[in-house]
Design a protein that fits this description.
54% of the residues lie in helices and 12% in strands. The chain contains nine helices and five strands; from the N terminus they run βαβααααββαααβα. The chain starts with a strand and ends with a helix. Pathway: Cofactor biosynthesis; coenzyme A biosynthesis; CoA from (R)-pantothenate: step 5/5.
């Protein structure tokens, strides 16, 4: 049996990549939500728990074994070096978890890994093709402020500034989806879906 193609799906905060992922999912394509799994693995993955505790201290986890999110957030918030350390621990755990998941879904024509920082960590290189979801920065900012009212405009600006630029995404992606409100996304997804199916049949 031929292995399914591995497809990366990414986009900046507020681009709507999770919405796009759900459209692919409705077509029967398995989706691995890397950001959600990364959060879950901080509790579930024993090796990762040990590494986090060794790096950030015993207070990283509560007495009941749950992640002490407030403690970790205070450690890494506004400290890029500490955040890089945490990402450096979580990223390999996500890679291991994704490989296991991919084996369980090997009958699909292709698999999608949805990840916010696919290009930042070089994870796109492990994919056969990559899709970037694009939207204008001001629109993305409005979407995030509506979705996450606890965030301030300054916090959203800070996140937007730290993420890969749209120009860089354009260079690295094999497919682009325009998710500005003026564009219909389903026809764009269908076109990419058909292109990927044609690749798997060769």
């Amino acid at each position: 049996m031929t292995k399914p193609l591995l497809i990366g799906l990414t986009g900046g905060i507020g681009s709507g990549k999770s919405t796009i992922a759900r459209v692919f999912q409705s077509l029967g394509i398995p989706i691995y939500y890397a950001d959600d799994r990364g959060k879950a693995l901080l509790t579930e993955d024993e090796q990762l728990r040990k590494e986090v505790t060794a790096t950030f201290g015993e207070s990283s986890y509560n007495g009941d074994g749950s992640l002490n999110r407030q403690y970790l957030a205070e450690k890494v918030f506004s400290n890029n070096d500490e955040l890089a350390k945490l990402n450096g621990l979580v990223h390999p755990a996500v890679v291991r978890d994704f490989e296991t998941w991919a084996k369980l879904n090997c009958s699909a024509p292709y698999l999608i890994k949805e990840a916010a920082i696919l290009f930042e960590h070089g994870g796109y290189k492990a994919m056969d093709k990559n899709i970037a979801v694009m939207a204008e920065k001001e629109l993305r900012k409005r979407r995030v402020l509506l979705r996450d009212p606890q965030r301030s405009a300054a916090q959203v600006d800070d996140i937007l500034a730290k993420q890969t630029s749209d120009n860089q995404r354009r260079k690295l992606a094999d497919f682009l989806i325009d998710n500005n409100d003026s564009q219909m996304v389903i026809p764009q997804v269908m076109e990419i879906h058909q292109a990927l199916l044609s690749l798997t049949s060769h």
